[in-house]
């Protein structure tokens, strides 16, 4: 049930408590906030009588903890004494061959100068929105708390986003960044807890794509398959078996009661991918409100 940095913290805690003679760390800074990375650097540097082997693309982190660098290329291992800076000075041709997005971040820390150019694709016009400055998502005093917990994750959040918005969410692990994203895309609603208040409005024609922190887990389950074999197995006999799992998922009595409360679908007026899943725009019997977008699993 943990997400992002908390998963990595739990994995690190398990490794540390094992008091191993050999500590193997595979991308240990993934999803960690700045404070957690700083703590990990301090812990590793204070370790005694323990050998650490670290795989990481965070070169600043490597430079702070590594005493030696092993470069793996062309099926061979080359050993270099010293940290990342020493390795970079000895093998500049290796550094120049690295992807720019990595080398720029590393040398930016050394020089203190860094200019990033980020270009987003134009999503095209949104039906019903004439101005790109007009809000397409709006939060008004939104507060959120998960069912079964006594901690309020978000409190009285108000924000607006337009077609021109480019927003970065920064915060410590557990601050509520993923929760806010899920509320933005509609994976969570303000109805799951009595303490949840406020309003979230999204333009009815809004198209949302959401790449979650752990969106690769589905692919990781099929790492041994080639792309062709994966497609063959998933769409065997012309059916999407992953989608079939959702359709045939057993409904609880609570699910059935909620479906009855919503009313039967009397008309389907649209279809789109929203929040990373296939949704239909539907009208239900006994409902006077506007057409709503609902996931296929409903």
TrEMBL record:
Protein name listed in UniProt: ABC transporter domain-containing protein
Compartments where located: Plastid, Chloroplast
Ranges for domain ABC transporter: 154-219
Stretch forming the signal peptide: 1-22
Keywords on record: Cytoplasm, Repeat, Signal
Family matches, as PANTHER family: ATP-BINDING CASSETTE SUB-FAMILY F MEMBER 1 (PTHR19211:SF14), ATP-BINDING TRANSPORT PROTEIN-RELATED (PTHR19211)
Gene Ontology MF terms in the entry: ATP binding; ATP hydrolysis activity
GO annotations of cellular component type: chloroplast
InterPro entries reported in the protein's UniProt record: ABC_transporter-like_ATP-bd, ABCF, eEF3_chromodomain-like_sf, P-loop_NTPase
